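Changelog-adjacent note: as of this version, every example in the card shows the full chain rather than a window. The one below runs 212 residues end to end.
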Amino acid sequence: MRHILVMNPKGGCGKSTIATNLASWYATLGKHVALADFDPQRSSMDWVGLRPADAPRVTGVPAYEDGLRAAPRNADVVVIDAPARSHGREVTELVRRAETVLVPVLPSAIDMRAASSFIAELLEVGRVARQQAKIAVVANRIKENTVSFDELDVYLRKLRVPYIATLRDAQNYVRAYGRGLGVFELPQYLAWQDWGHWRPLTDWLDSPASQP
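Full-length structure tokens:
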């Protein structure tokens, strides 16, 4: 069973957007997917509730109530949507559940400063230090050809962890979420650009570099 944790203590950085789209991507591949929502705001669980009956199944797990105990044991992939403001022991406990950790970062000075502190904290977690969990960062909600993205791009390239993808700020994510879908399930004429932006991320997740 594969566990992928989407985590950043900074609120509003798009953790649930990435988690729900990852869940839908694996589901479209025919995987048995569980989406575990540790955030009491339950954005991921709300998305599961909106999912059409004829869409590839994603099992929602209200992990904010009882952790991963309700996750199906036969799931191929468990995508974990972490809560905001996680630090210290909570970070260690969440990382203990995962082989892969994705950290989305927004193009703002506040988010970059917060990410620096959080990445430093993550690198000290035992499972990460022992290479039992792999970390990568994702530039999220970017607008190309802007100063803010250029600054984020330079910053992420200097980190001690892989920088694997840039995901654009697009209305397709809003459209997809409101229908319980991922961008991979939108028509090609609408979402082809976003599919291209996700390719480096999904390729990395498919590679040995993303797992211990």
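Structural remarks: The CA atoms of residues 128 and 154 lie 24 Å apart.
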